[in-house]
Specification:
The complex is a heterodimer of chains A (371) and B (83).
Chain A lengths: L5 E5 L5 H7 L8 H13 L8 E7 L2 E9 L2 E4 L4 E4 L2 E7 L8 H15 L4 E4 L4 H8 L4 E5 L2 E4 L5 H9 L1 H7 L3 H13 L9 E4 L4 H10 L7 E2 L3 H7 L6 E8 L3 E9 L9 E9 L2 H12 L5 E5 L5 H9 L3 E2 L2 H4 L5 E6 L10 E2 L2 E2 L17
Parallel strand pairs in A: 14-15
Antiparallel strand pairs in A: 1-2, 2-3, 3-6, 4-5, 4-11, 7-17, 8-17, 9-15, 9-16, 10-12, 12-13, 13-14, 18-19
Helix pairs in contact in A: 1-2, 8-9
Chain B lengths: L2 H11 L22 H15 L10 H4 L3 H12 L4
Classes of the chains: A alpha+beta (371), B mainly alpha (83).
Chain lengths: 371, 83
């Protein structure tokens, strides 16, 4: 068991090389990729000018990290906006676990958030271990995200064999980037989509996407602000590949954002629908149809906060519950904590809306680091 | 062996540093010494005793699992046994 002088400090650039090394336990083994991720998420974040990152040092060496990524939310039909940091990227070197570092780093981060005059922190991508650590520090869950997924239909005997042999399924399924390649090829060959003016791109159209969001009616639930600045930043995550289905020319009538992890990373066979917007149901349907032509090994979307029309559409296309063991334990879910301990026993609200009521959320995978 | 004794044995087996002598009043979370991995094992231990999967988001961990005695009572109640 490791011993030494422990302290919690704010991030300074001089400690970055050590931090990136410690993150090989969480992000990736590739330190250059970790550097790109840190730069995107914390140094180029549109909401925080300075990274809100705390480090645990043992005898001056970085042994742990907790990050708070800037995120701007809105609520209300005449929307009020607020910043609620997204707590993420908790890692402690294996030899320093079970020494209370999780709590100490989190405490320091909450103190700094309080100092910035902010009231709540959110986490939308906690796995089971981080979820438990968070709950033990007073975080609460507003509810699960209702992940549903769809696999391509295979002849029944083949399905039965694949279901029994995860090894075979992994190798016989279409890799995610291969599925994107199929969509890419379809687009290059001038695919006939079910509505005119549909296109596929590898690039976001931040202004046009934000313009569509601004034209759609608001229902007042909590959701991330989706403006051009957000869209311009959001899709530069180096750990993700994206494809954008658009309906419309300069003025969009709909879009869908598909995301996967690059080949070779864990979970790279899964493709996620991280955002999906349209001016009417016909366009929404056409976007889903186009995505299904990718024949992905698995296509997943969060459905808990969807309206009945969208849920019905997904049911008709054979989407069903997935990851049920995790879902039964509330993972992934919407985790929330007031910054100040004296607010832990209060009713948690922002602009009169209860945060712990899942019906008050319009939750999309885009807002989470899963997306 | 009582549930409390089993729980204390289990916490010792997690290799947590700094808890000292573990008694019924020992605070499990405010001490901050149960890191998330130990918590993960703790939840698995609870699930094994109550015989069903547990959604921890439905539990107020600070109030219901705050001390060894509180967690022991939780397990006894949920498992329907009072050994």
């Amino acid at each position: 068991m490791a011993h030494g002088h422990l302290e919690i400090v704010r991030y300074i650039p001089e400690l970055k090389p050590q931090l990136l090394q410690v993150q090989t336990h969480l992000w990736s083994r590739d330190v250059r990729l970790n550097d790109a991720y840190f730069r995107w998420k914390y140094e180029e974040n549109p909401y925080f000018r300075e990274p809100l990152v705390h480090l645990a040092l043992c005898d001056g060496q970085v042994v742990g990290m907790r990050g708070m990524c800037g995120a701007r939310w809105q609520v209300g039909v005449r929307p009020e906006t607020f910043v609620a940091p997204y707590a993420d990227d908790l890692v402690v070197s294996p030899e320093h676990r079970n020494r209370g570092l999780f709590t100490q780093i989190m405490r320091a981060a909450l103190d700094e958030v309080a100092g910035r005059g902010l009231d709540y922190v959110f986490n939308l991508s906690a796995g089971r271990t981080t979820q438990l650590g968070s709950l033990s520090m007073g975080w609460k869950s507003a509810g699960g995200v209702g992940a549903v997924g769809r696999r391509p239909r295979a002849p029944r005997p083949l399905t039965a064999i694949l279901n029994r042999t995860h090894f075979l399924r992994r190798y016989l399924s279409t890799p995610a980037s291969g599925a994107f390649a199929r969509l890419d090829r379809m687009a290059e060959r001038g695919a006939k989509w079910s509505v005119g003016a549909m296109s596929l791109s590898k690039h976001p159209r931040p202004e046009a996407m934000a313009d569509l969001i601004a034209r759609l009616p608001l229902d007042g639930r909590f959701r991330h602000v989706r403006d051009a600045a957000y869209f311009g930043w959001r899709f530069r995550n180096p750990f993700r590949d994206y494809r954008f289905l658009y309906v419309g020319e300069s003025r969009l009538d709909g879009y869908m954002v598909l995301q996967c992890q690059p080949n070779g990373q864990a979970g790279s066979a899964r493709v996620n629908i991280v955002d999906w917007e349209a001016t009417d149901a016909t366009i929404r349907d056409a976007l889903l149809d186009a995505a299904l032509q990718g024949a992905f090994a698995e296509l997943v979307i969060w459905s808990a906060s969807m309206d009945a029309e969208r849920r019905d559409l997904l049911r008709r296309r054979a989407f069903g519950p997935i990851d049920e063991a995790d879902a039964a334990r509330g993972v992934p879910g919407i985790l929330i904590r007031p910054v100040r301990d004296d607010a832990l026993r209060a009713d948690w609200t922002i602009h009169g809306r209860r945060l712990l009521d899942v019906a008050n959320w319009d939750m999309r995978m885009l807002y989470s680091m899963h997306g | 062996m009582t549930v409390r004794e089993e729980l204390i044995d289990f916490i010792h087996s997690c290799g947590v540093e700094g808890l000292g002598d573990i008694t019924g009043d020992t605070a499990l979370f405010s001490s901050g010494l149960l890191d998330s991995l130990a918590l993960f094992s703790l939840v698995a231990w609870v699930e094994e005793r109550i015989g069903v999967p547990l959604d921890p988001t439905t539990v107020d961990l600070l109030a219901e699992w705050g001390t060894v005695d509180e967690l022991s009572r939780f397990v006894e109640t949920r498992s329907g046994s009072s050994r």
